[in-house]
Amino acid sequence: MQSDYNDLRHDWTLAEIEALYSAPLPDLIFRAQSIHRRHHHSAQVQGCVLLSIKTGGCPEDCAYCPQSAHYKTSLGRESLLNVEDALTAARNAKAQGATRFCMGAAWRDIPSGEPFERVLKMVRGVRDLGMEACCTLGMLTQEQADALAAAGLTAYNHNLDTSAEFYGEIISTRTFGDRLATLERVRRSGITVCCGGIIGMGETRTERYGLLRELSSMNPHPESVPVNLLVRVEGTPLALQQATDPLELVRMIATGRILMPASMVRLSAGRLSLSDEAQALCFLAGANSIFMGDKLLTTPNPEANADRALFDKLGMRLIQAETYGAG
Ligand code: SAM
Ligand code: DTB
Ligand code: SF4
Q1: Are 56 and 77 in contact (CB under 8 A)?
Q2: Domain 14-318 has CATH 3.40.50.10490
Q3: How far is the C-alpha of 229 from the C-alpha of 241, rounded, in Å?
Q4: Which ligand minimizes its atom distance to the CA of 234?
Q5: CB 90 within 8 A of CB 129
Q6: Segments making up each domain of the chain, as ranges
Q7: 194 is catalytic
Q8: Does 66 sit in the ligand 2 pocket, CB within 6 Å?
Q9: Are 48 and 289 in contact (CB under 8 A)?
């Protein structure tokens, strides 16, 4: 094993990643937890809240996504929310203890004109509440990235989702290279990068290693790495996908934590299908953030009461708002 000190590396190989991921679970978790404690508080978790500001009707064909216009799901198509409604949701999120508010739009790329101006107003409003603001709006131009940065956007979420090799099985309307190019523009603008993926889409372990290698080769690492467990939505091509063993999610999180020690690793979609014990293992493995509230973007998420009870049982707590400067 390499030294645990000076642990930010960008040259992890597939073989090294495989050795970590497939180690005996106690060894993997011990290593992840040791690294976690050097960079983060062991009992603190950041609460984030998601809001879908523009739902459904997306021209992309991501096989997991209920918002794609290519599939018949129960979701309708809605127009862009107004600024006041978005900020009401952000205030509620803050009252619930969240310190990060994430706004998602089912766009292939950001439209120009009034809709983009409206999103900029939302970003400024969220920042004025003293919260971190994150957006996930699809592809963007350098000018749009710079405008979001000027509005104070903290982070831009754009997931690689899976390995370059498996990508074409899941999405045909854009390429892995398109994703990387968008992430480059975000990085250049000075906005922090939120980039992760999904497990449970039928990928092999090797394809998971490929995703982890891609993420850990970025320099700097993405500041935020969401790890999603597929939410199988009726009407999407992945609706009948076999359930994934939660221990694979634990291994994915632990390996991500070791590869990207300083990043926030977010236990994202899929918590409703996890027991309290499985979630506890995810925290032990180095996850230090969750999405709170009874809805993710369009699918259900644990109720606030359930999360409060879980944190009480585990003796863990949410990172306090004071940690972040207002503005
Ligand atoms: N349209 C934008 C994009 O694709 O970048 C932003 C919204 S998209 C819903 C954000 C991320 O949510 C996706 O990249 C994917 O990783 C995750 N996601 C979407 N549907 C999911 C599902 N059914 N299960 C798990 N994760 C999902
Ligand atoms: C991420 O990786 N997961 C969040 C956030 N980034 C935007 C979204 C999960 C969406 C799950 C499906 C839905 O609710 O529509
Ligand atoms: Fe559209 Fe994003 Fe859903 Fe893909 S993941 S279909 S780009 S909303």
Answers
A1: yes
A2: no
A3: 12
A4: 1
A5: yes
A6: 14-318
A7: yes
A8: yes
A9: yes
Q: Any catalytic annotation for residue 282?
A: no
62 is catalytic: yes
Tokens representing 86? 């978005």
Residue 1 has pLDDT above 80, yes or no: no
Closest approach atom of ligand 1 to CA 297: 9
Rounded distance between C-alpha atoms, residue 147 and residue 113, angstroms: 12
Which residue's CA is the closest to the ligand 2 atom numbered 9? 269
Q: How far apart (Å, rounded) are the C-alpha atoms in residues 64 and 234?
A: 10
CA–CA gap between residue 187 and residue 171 (Å, rounded) = 24
DSSP string, 19-35: HHHTS-HHHHHHHHHHH
Q: How confident is the model at residue 77 (pLDDT cuts 50, 70, 90)?
A: confident
Which residue in 58, 135, 195, 282 is the catalytic one?
A: 58
pLDDT digits (tens, 9 = 90+) for 219-235: 999 999 999 999 999 99
* Pairing state between β 197-199 and 155-157: unpaired
What's residue 322's pLDDT?
A: 57
Active site residue 65: yes
Report the predicted TM-score, pTM, of the whole model to 2 decimal places. Answer: 0.96
Between the CA of 254 and the centroid of ligand 3 the distance, in Å, is 27
Q: pLDDT class for 3, splitting at 50, 70, 90?
A: very low
User: Sorting pLDDT into bands at 50, 70 and 90, what band is 5?
Assistant: low
Per-residue model confidence as pLDDT tens digits over 291-323: 999 999 999 999 999 999 999 999 999 998 754
SS3 state of residue 106: coil
Residue 49 in tokens: 């809240």
